[in-house]
Amino acid sequence: MLKKTMSAAAALAVGSLALTACGGTSSGSDDAAGGSGGGDDTITMGFAQVGAESGWRTANTQSVKDSAEEAGVELLFSDAQQKQENQIKAIRSYIQQDVDVIAFSPVVETGWDAVLLEAKRASIPVILTDRAVDSEDDSLYETFLGSDFVLEGERAGEWLVENAEDSDVNGDGSINVVQLEGTTGAAPAIDRAEGFADTIASDGSIEVVASQTGDFTRDGGKRVMESFLNSEDDIDVVYAHNDDMGLGAIEAIEAAGLTPGEDIKIITVDAVKDGMQALVDGKINYIVECNPLLGPQLMDLAEQVVAGEEVEPRVVTEETTFTQEEAAEVIDERQY
Amino acid sequence: MRDASRVFSSTLLWPLLVLLALLVVNVVANPGFLEVRVQDGRLFGSLVDIVRNGAPVLLIALGMTLVIATRGIDLSVGAVAAIGGAVACVYMVSSPDESGLGTALVACALALATCVALGLWNGFLVSVLGIQPIIATLVLLVAGRGLAMLVTDGQITTVNNDSFRTIGVGFVLGLPVAALVAWAVFGLTALLVRRTALGMLVEAVGINPEASRLAGVRAVTIRWTVYVFSGLCAGLAGLMIAANTSAADANNAGLWIELDAILAVVIGGTSLAGGRFSLAGTFVGALLITTLAATIPNIGIPSETNYLFKAVVVIVVCLLQSPKARAVLRRRRTTPAPPAPPAPPESPTPTLAKAGTR
Q: Does the beta-carbon distance from A219 to B245 stay under 8 Å?
């Protein structure tokens, strides 16, 4: 009973931290929270990153570090090397150091309730970035900042619907799309397929004639595309759930003696540097961005949360799309 | 002659029949499957893709066959392949002449040397320190990708070198270079182990290391050597995988290829308990695995069920190869089947004298 009252008081304190920081409504740890950053104005943030498994992730890390410096946020950073236990340890240590706000990209979806409850009891707000957690208690975190994969799929579909005439490469009136899916069961693979399918349903001439997983890898994309080139007739468009599979498909298409981007149109998602280069070179036709540079948005959210302002429980990363011309303009500035 | 037919009925016949059945299924689903046409002066078609994409698995399965014959196993090959690809690509990218032939050659040599060193490490743990092979090679299976990530700095390293690409996607006389290289290594190894006493010695070590040592076989050296050879094969495969997409992907290059290779070896009739081995069986096994992988997109199996399809085919092959399961099937037939030759025991008790005839 006492515990419940305590955590309720702690939860209350989260919402009004700025006002009650010195009021001593809970255990008194709030006093330290304000001071740990070396002054009441400085926010201390603990950030527990997944790891460094891809160029996308490295860019994500860099963005968080850079924007923390820019916003004057003191950043405590840890790399979990893809292990949940490391991430939980990191979060516990942030709780002990009494930071102002904790942000992390969960390695897996489940198993976070215990450690998030500890953070809640210590009155430290939590922001999820990039990946969601699967918990029934959504009071355990303040907000989730990340991409909307369904929207990404929809954007890819919209471009195809708008450019339907050009995309009908062989001029037979029907647009045959082959889809290179991400890892089976992964949220981006499911959502990007769903958003795309919903959008192209508005145009009867567009049809996904074959779809197979390429596991988000270049090699996988290449193999599946090789097979599609042999088994499917009149492929007009390739829709790949990430740039890497699209790059693999380009190799397969070139090996088949066709010109990627002309004989077969290619749409991908991500906008990593190699993908953007292929877009500039005319081998890819359209890329929907999946933005890893969510640092600035994260810092804004952190400031709002620490100031006790209400934030949306779901914040979508600012993302754009690139045509070949647009890519040529920004390619030199791409950081990843 | 009778000897030959017996070997065929026990180990090679069933995988070959399943391979044939897979090809038939593919042709039914897509009549153009077997079509091979000449394009830009080289062969092009699904079959060409199968032999080209199958080259890394074939090479790794070759090394794995010898390791398994010594009653060992090498789980690290996928990670070693990833390291090999990473070393080669990172060297080329950081060298002043990224697209030169010389750079590519040095990069490949460097990568292969690294992989041989990793093979030496595995072999040292197994043969000298006497650590169980599954544990000894698990070290690199787990840690190897970390090493590869360290080399590539966690990025997918893309290279721009046409000479290097040749190993993965090049063609000589219309035939894919990757397959030619794999076949050449395979042929040379077969010659070496079957035309000399080496194969027999490997089997002797696999059947009873202690007895073979007492008989004067240098068991430690032989066990060590097969792991080094496995590392070399993995390195070569890693170069092919990297060259296929002109990129080193530390996370995904050669992922789970060790399992495909072990499966190819076992389907080919080599017992995991060591001893006798069949290189021809491994060849068919590797071909079967690659054809299976190509079948899935060709006949349009949905992504959600493609592992199930793979599992069913593999289970069928294994059942067909099991003497007990075959006996049960025979008894169940209503019409009396022609008296089949008795299946040889699967247990690792071949005689040394027969080793050379296979």
A: yes
